[in-house]
Structures are given as structure tokens and as C-alpha cells.
Amino acid sequence: MKILCWNCQGLGQSQVVYSLQMVVQKIDPDVIFLPDTRLHKIGFLNLKLSLDMVGYFMVDFTATCSGILLFWNYKVSMYLLSYSSRHIDVVIASFTEKFHFFRIIGYANTNIKI
Q: Looking at residue 15, which CATH number applies to its domain?
């Protein structure tokens, strides 16, 4: 099973989307995890179609959340355990393996840089 985790730091620019599409085309992942998308639900529909993924889960971009996207293809099943604006917790299962995928998403506080 191949999982692509990419902090895209916003999917609003066509260059970033193009780069993501090229990486996905090259490695053919089963799961794509994208934190910090800065996308609202309406903005990701074209992205979902272009990545040719079957399923998705999205935490919308808000004042307290930078947006989270999780896509998967037909080879895996995804079981959502919990989520918030700062984490996602799922079980990913394929025909041959099953594991727990938990991610915490933080944000940079530029006021405390050293």
C-alpha cells in the first residue's frame, strides 16, 4: 500500500495542483493525505476528479482549520474513527493489510520563531 502525505500549503494555485497531479501520476498512491489545503468544499471537486480517486474525506477550511483532505482509491477501505480541525484518525484496510493512520495537524506561530 502506498500513501502520499504532502503538506501542500494551499491548493489555490494551479502550479501546486499540477505538481500534485504529476506526483500522483508517477507514484500511483492508494491514499493521499493533504493537510493545510486552504480549500473550501466547492474548491476541491475538480481536484478529486483530476486525481481519479474513489473516496474522500474533507475537513473544511475555516478560521480555526487550514483544511484537511484524505483521498483513497478502489484498492482500500477507509474507516473514520474521529476528526477535528487539528487531527484525523482512520483505519485503512486493503486486501492484504490493515493499519491505524493518525495525524495531528499543527500550525506555525510566526510570533515565536527563534
A: 3.60.10.10
CA 63 to chain centre: 18
% pLDDT > 70, the chain: 76
Full residue range of the structural domain in which residue 99 is found: 3-112
Grid coordinates belonging to 19: 505538481
Give bridge partners of residue 103 from the DSSP assignment: 88
Averaged pLDDT for residues 3-8: 85
Amino acid of residue 42: I
The Cα diameter of the chain in Å comes to: 47
For the whole model, what pTM was predicted? 0.80
Count of domains observed in the chain: 1
Strand 31-35, strand 77-83: pairing: unpaired
